[in-house]
Every structure is written in C-alpha cells, then in structure tokens.
C-alpha cells in the first residue's frame, strides 16, 4: 500500500510517499481502506518535534512513529474473527488516539476504538475532519460543565478546534462570541456565533465584556490579559497550551482571587464522543469546515500550508 513516511524530524520535505506492507487485522481488529484523512496542527508539531518535548515521547533522535495522521474516514475491507460490532463494507470514521498511521491507504484498528459509522449525510473528506477539532472541543466543554445561557468566548473561532467549539457551545445553549481575523468573520457568523470580534480591530480584553468561559483554541491569546474578562468562578480553557502556558495555568488556578479554573492537558478519545459528533452532524448542528483538500501525493504541500497557521477550519486529504 501507499503511505507517507517520515524517518526524521524537520520541514515538510521529510515526508515521503512510499510503498509499505499492507496490515493484516488481528482477532479484535478491523482493516479500513482509508478514503480520507486530515492534516492538523498536531501533525505539524510531531513532524517538526516542536516543542522539543515531543522527542521525549516520540523518539529522541528520530520518530518512532513513521506514519503520521490521527483521523480518518473509510470503508471496512476485512475483519478479525472476534469482531462483533462491525461488518465488511461498513463506512466508518474516527480518531486513532496515539497510534496514528492514517497517512496511508490502509490501517487496522481495534473494534472498540474511537470509531463510529460515518454520518450518512456527508462525504468521506468531511467526516475525516470532524474528530480532531470536534473531540477536542467536546472534551473541554464537557469538562467545564458548560451550561445553557452562559457567556462563552472562543478565541481562534475559525480554526479546526474553534469552529467545532462554536457549534458545540451553541448546541449546549451558550451565548457565543467568536474571535477571529477579518477574513473569517462571515464564516464564524455562519457557524452560529451570536457575536464576532475581529481581533485586528478590537481587543476583547479591553471592551469591558465579561464571560463565564474563555476558550483559547490556538495558543495565541494573552493568558494574563484574559483573566480580567472572566467572571468570578469563570473557566479558562487552553486547549493548545504549551509547557509554559500549562504551568502558567496551574499557577493561576492556585493563586487567583476570582476562583478561576484553568483547564489544559491531554484529552481522552472515546467511541461515545465520535457517536455524539455523528449524531450532531446528521442533524445539521455540526458542520465540518474544510479550507483546502489535497491528495496523498500532495502531503508536503498540505503540511506547508497548515504550518503557515492561517487555515480556515481543516485541511483534508483524499486517498484514492
């Protein structure tokens, strides 16, 4: 099968299209013919080993994981003898958690992984982009116990996580303010945001508005400045936090006088979350946002584009 291989850290050019052995499903596994995947910010960080701490988990001198990609949509081609939940021909989508490997034509998954039947209302490339931003946003909003009527601000509202967070917060009944650049104001409004702030024209930390929850989805917001915009007992979500922001958040949670909770950390992927996102997608409450679509052969170009940091929503990869 064809796959994108990276045997060293570096620029997008380290990604190479090669022929590798097609996997065979074990007793409890399904073999998926991948029809689409996506390039996310996490893929870029792993490819670059940036921050350096990536090397502590994925290989100090070279990557232990040579095939990146964490999301997928495709069709089951074979099943192990013990598989009960799925059958050959089922169209499925999901997230690999930490096993990666979806920059390829085939991938084996345990049947109890973060997988669900693909929403019937959308194409494979649309389904493939849902789990990364959708599961991240859902994890943190549920952890924050979001409530109907709460004032919620999403910083980076046009990105993969931000666009999902806007829609999910609206589903949970929140009053949502999205923050993005001028070019993305119309997009964020179309996702259901009650108000959109163009950060090139207005600083939300200086307009006097107060929020129950502030969700920074891109790690480009001033954490210290945002605290004045949070109500007492408010919540600050830093879903893309680096080491410094994580330590800063821990210190704020321990010392601030407004009893603000700061949430960071690694998320858990569960099949229940994928099923939940499937239901919202089929009902029209969650719409995948795709900026550009590339082929597997164009992976270097796709990574180059994502690394610029200006994508709207997601970048999809079609695999023929």
From TrEMBL:
Residues 10-317 form the Enoyl reductase (ER) domain. It comes from the Bacteria. GO terms for molecular function: oxidoreductase activity. InterPro entries: ADH-like_N, ER, GroES-like_sf, NAD(P)-bd_dom_sf, YIM1/Zinc_Alcohol_DH_Fams. SUPFAM superfamilies: GroES-like, NAD(P)-binding Rossmann-fold domains. PANTHER family: ALCOHOL DEHYDROGENASE RELATED (PTHR11695), ZINC-BINDING OXIDOREDUCTASE (PTHR11695:SF648). This is NAD(P)-dependent alcohol dehydrogenase. It comes from Flavobacterium luteum.
């Amino acid at each position: 099968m064809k796959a994108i291989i990276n045997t060293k850290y570096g620029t997008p050019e380290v990604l190479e299209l090669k022929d590798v052995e097609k996997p065979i499903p074990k007793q409890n596994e399904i073999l998926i013919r991948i029809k689409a995947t996506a390039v996310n910010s996490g893929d870029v960080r792993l490819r670059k080993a940036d921050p350096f701490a990536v090397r502590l988990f994925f290989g100090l001198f070279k990557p232990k994981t040579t095939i990146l990609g964490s999301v997928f949509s495709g069709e089951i081609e074979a099943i192990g003898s013990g598989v009960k939940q799925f059958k050959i021909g089922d169209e499925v989508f999901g997230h690999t958690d930490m096993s990666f490997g979806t920059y390829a034509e085939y991938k084996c998954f345990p049947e109890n992984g973060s997988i669900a039947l693909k929403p019937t209302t959308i194409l494979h490339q649309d389904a493939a982009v849902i789990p990364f931003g959708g599961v991240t946003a859902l994890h943190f909003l549920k952890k924050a116990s979001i409530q109907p009527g709460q004032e919620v601000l999403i910083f980076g509202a046009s990105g993969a996580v931000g666009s999902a967070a806007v829609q999910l917060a609206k589903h949970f009944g929140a009053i949502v303010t999205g923050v993005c650049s001028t070019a993305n104001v119309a997009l964020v409004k179309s996702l259901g945001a009650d108000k959109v702030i163009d950060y090139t024209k207005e600083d939300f930390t200086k307009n006097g508005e107060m929020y129950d929850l502030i969700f920074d989805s891109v790690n480009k917001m001033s954490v210290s400045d945002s605290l004045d915009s949070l109500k007492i007992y408010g919540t600050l979500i830093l879903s893309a936090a680096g080491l410094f922001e994580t330590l800063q958040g821990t210190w704020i949670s321990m010392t601030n006088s407004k009893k603000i909770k700061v949430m960071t950390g690694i998320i858990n992927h569960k099949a229940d979350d994928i099923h939940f996102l499937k239901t919202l997608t089929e009902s029209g409450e969650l719409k995948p946002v795709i900026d550009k679509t590339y082929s597997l052969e164009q992976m270097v170009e796709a990574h180059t584009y994502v690394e610029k940091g200006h994508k709207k929503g997601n970048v999809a990869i079609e695999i023929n």
